[in-house]
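For this section, I looked closely at the sequence of one protein beside the tokens encoding its backbone, which the following lines show:
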Amino acid sequence: MSREQIAGLAVAPGKPRYLLAVAGTAVALLIGGVLWQVFRPTSAFSQQQPGRATVGKATANAEKTDHYLARVNQDLIAWDDVAKECMDRHGQEVLENMINHKIIEQACAKAGVEVGAAEVKEEIAKLAKKFNLDTQQWLNMLQAERGLSPMQYQRDIIWPMLALRKLAGGQVTITKAEMDEAFESNYGPRVKARVIVLDNQRRAATVWEKASKNPETFERLAYEHSVDPSSRPLGGSVPAIRKHSGVPEVEKAAFALQEGEISGVIQVGLDRFIIIKCEGQTEPTVVDKKEVLPILKEEIQERKVQESVAKVFEKVKAEARVDNYLTGVTSKSDKRPTAAAGMPSSPAAAGTGRATPPEERVTPVSGTRTPARTSARPAASKAAARE
């Protein structure tokens, strides 16, 4: 368990957590854009000239065809080689992202939900304003820090989020108890603490015995024994522990301590054992709840919407049958939708030569594409490139 988890992810009051969602998908979306370039349809010009005499020779004209992407002295680097390398490195995660996007598209079509370009633009402006940035500054920041181009951000982050919100529907209800809890968590007192995190109960008991006998050695013991890479170099120091942090065992033990006291061994999960030393409590940052009611309401509403969105996505994902030919895995949905025109409804239709029952693993299709993909770019071999 990291020091941030122990401290309840000490997020600044009222600070949107949206960037956490962006970080988790940025790499896959960036590579997705690269692969789209690799698999993009060829131009009409290249399709009209299938029999060019210069194909396979290291000439200037050959380099302009869709067969090759580069030449190094006399050797050509073929499109197929680049495509295969991209697929080997990143194909699985990019395909998963595309599958999820398609699931949302189909759910929207079924429910009659539409998300227009104006809505996407408005949402981006709204998010930028939360960080006191104009839209262009926000997009530039995402490009620089997350590797997300504006197109990728709109298509792969904002559109799915808005679509799932609409699919979730309904108004969010916020109770007084939720408001009180949020106020206490964000603005109430927190416990200043050091912790020792261990992954073995017997070792935790030994370290606790040493710390209990000599509390002044706690910092040194944390440095010597803690398995948490974040807090260990700091002698076990973690951000102040707040209430309603999501780790109730740690929270309860921390707030029961007086300054200078050491907790017992607290088990969190199957293999994490934590010892806390209390170094006092912070003063509440806001006393009158009325001062921050709009911020609290917005934060709770955003959290509950995200929870609702997550449930909706899990539902539509569970209802979809997905035959992933790359990984060889079929989803466990009992439903088997009718294939769209021109698309393979099974591995057999895609070229594997046999149909697969709903609960079987799908035989991966090596090098097989749908008809549209097959004609998208001409085939070229390394041998032909060096003739």
